[in-house]
Structure formats: structure tokens, C-alpha cells
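Researcher: Here's the sequence for the chain we discussed earlier.
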Amino acid sequence: MLRRTLPILFVLLIILTTGCGSESTQSVPEDGPFLTFTDGLDRRVVLNAAPERVVSIAPGATHVVRAAGGLGSLVAVTTADYNDADLEGLERVSALPLDLEAIIALDPDLILASDQVNDPAHAELFEALNVPIAYLGSDTWEDVSTSIVLTGRMLRSEDLAEAAADSLQAEREALAAITSQIEVPPTSIFLISPITSYSFGKGSYVLDLMRLAGLNPLTETFETPAPVLDDEWVLLMNPDVIVGTFGDMDPVASLLENHPSWRSLDAIKQGKVVDVPVPSILTPGPENVRAAWHMAMKVHPELFSGMNQKSSN
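Model: Thanks. This is the structure I predict for it:
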């Protein structure tokens, strides 16, 4: 295929003049399409042939492709993806903001996006250029599992994808069986940063992971999906455990440097502050199972004595 290097303004003109909707306008081959399915945004997506040049425009979508055994089909990932060894050599493109021209210059035959990250309006941009785009669902663990299997079907690695989904589900069920022994789960908050107290509210997948890990998330009553926790509220709630993504910083020292009044918190006094690796928790996808195991093993070590520590790092 020829390189598609149309400027963005021309793409927008195509959308306005053709009235592009939510369904691909590609011509269907006489023997029928390769695959038709409903994606994470409830869009009907038609793939007329098995994709060979795939661009992921969300780190979560890349994780799903990896789990589905389809990395060999990728030609590019985002600048926000981590520098994992198996992504070495792939082109890097901006997804936020979307660098449409750079993506189209790669001549993709499928774009994979995330329903949690990418703008739904981008569908019209790619469809106007006759490039299918699929938004992978990640609202719940069931959505993630479905996305893995669906991606395997798209990338012709269905057996690997189904095996991965089954394995991850088994890990999830094994952890649930362990943490179900906890009669009274300790109360907890999750902090994205030790500086400003960004957290997660009602309906977040992070709170689901905390419950799976045997924790009682105190922010589940917050209607906003991304609340900023007030210091006084944290002092009033006095969580048993503080979980977060603190990076290379010492969690307790960093928290006290930015929130000195928290010195009186039970979590601080008892050393119940748990750092979770960013890649496993802040991107909704298959890596989240590892994050749940990590939290559970750090908070409830007595439940895992003698077990293989494979998920604790």
C-alpha cells in the first residue's frame, strides 16, 4: 500500500464531506470480511483482512497485545509506553496529543486504542482514511479478559490469547481465594503521588484491585473518578494502609515531607505504606493482576508464608 501522508486538515475535510460514521467505510471483499466484532465503545468494527501492520496508541493496548501473543504484528507504540525489551526497535508515536500524520505515515492496517485513554472522536479520523480502529475495553477485569481474546482473534494468535486469559483468570481466582480469609479488611487509600494526593474514586479499576488484594478502599464513596484527598480528610479517616506509586522515593519519608501532619496516622506509625510499580497499576490491563498480588503480599504477608514470591516484585 502507498504511504498515507495526508495533512490533518484534509482528513477533516474528508470527514465533513463524506459524513463518516462509527463504522468503517472499507469495501467488503466478495468472500466476506475477515472479522466483524463490537469493540469497547460498542462500535461495530469490520476487518476485511487479517492486519499485518498494527499501531498501538495506548500503553494498555500494548499490554493486551503482549498478553495475546501478537507483538510481532506491531509496527509502533506510543511515546508513553515503557522501554520494555520486547518493544525495542518499534517506532514511537505521540498519542496524547495524537500525531495523526506520523501514525498514517507508518501505513497501518489497524489501530488499537483504549476505551479509558483515547478520544472516541479519533475513530472518525482513521476511518476517513480507511484505516480500522478498535477500542479495547478495560472498565472491568472481564473487559480486559475479553480484549485479550479479541486481540488474539484479530492478530491470528487466538490460542495464545485464550491461554493467557485463562492463566490470568486462574491467578485472579487464586488470589481471591487467599484474601477471602480476611475477616475485616484493613482500610486503605491509594495515592498516585506522595506530593499532591491524587487518588481514585467510585467505579475505578484500582479500587477493584485493592478489594481483590484484601483491602477496604476508603475512597469508594467519592463520586469523582480522580479525587484529590484533603490532608484533614486523610487524618479523619486514619487509614490502616497507604498504597501508592512512589517510584524511587522513600514512601514514608516523602509522605511526611509533603504531609507532616500525617505523622500521627496509624499507617505511618506501623509502617503500613506500600509502593506499587507504576507499570502494573496505572495502566488498566493484564498487568493489574500482578499489582493485586503485590499489594496483597505486602499487606498480608502471613497469608503467603512459604509461597513462591513470584508476584511480589
